[in-house]
TrEMBL record:
Pfam families: MatE (PF01554). The keyword Acetylation does not apply. It comes from Zingiber officinale. InterPro entries: MATE_fam. GO terms for cellular component: membrane. Belongs to the multi antimicrobial extrusion (MATE) (TC 2.A.66.1) family. GO terms for molecular function: antiporter activity; xenobiotic transmembrane transporter activity. This is Uncharacterized protein. It comes from the Eukaryota. PANTHER family: MULTIDRUG RESISTANCE PROTEIN. The chain crosses the membrane at residues 6-25, 46-69, 75-99, 106-126.
Amino acid sequence: MYAVIVVLVQSLAIGLLSMVLLLATRNHFSAIFTNDIDMQRAVAQIAYLLGITMVLNSIQPVISGVAVGGGWQALVAYINLACYYIFGLPLGFLMGYVFHWGVQGIWFGMLCGTFIQTLVLLFIIWKTDWKAEAVQAAERVRLWGGQEDGTEQK
């Protein structure tokens, strides 16, 4: 569990730093990609969504990776489907087209799906008995040809 905490804190720090840099340069960073002043203004107006996305996307893949590494591939897939495709995208559609928020509404809806997915996976990882998982993994290694009785097989 300690390794998970360390990697999450590091990822969060990188995401927050990226967000701060992005927000600090929101009126200028788009000049790297376009010379169109109207486009640069539009990007500056939605830079806060990109900043939030950077923080969420610094944490969510790490948590998903821990869960997949723990052997819960199917569970992660179902959580992804439910949170992102069943909740986030329809919410983005509603906010973007029904409530006329445009790009910001679509993006916000997808962020909500990613946020919920992150919370659900964090809860699962937090509630996992990692000592029991380690015992189970050691038993599988022993059963499938790993070490037996403290001696290596040759």
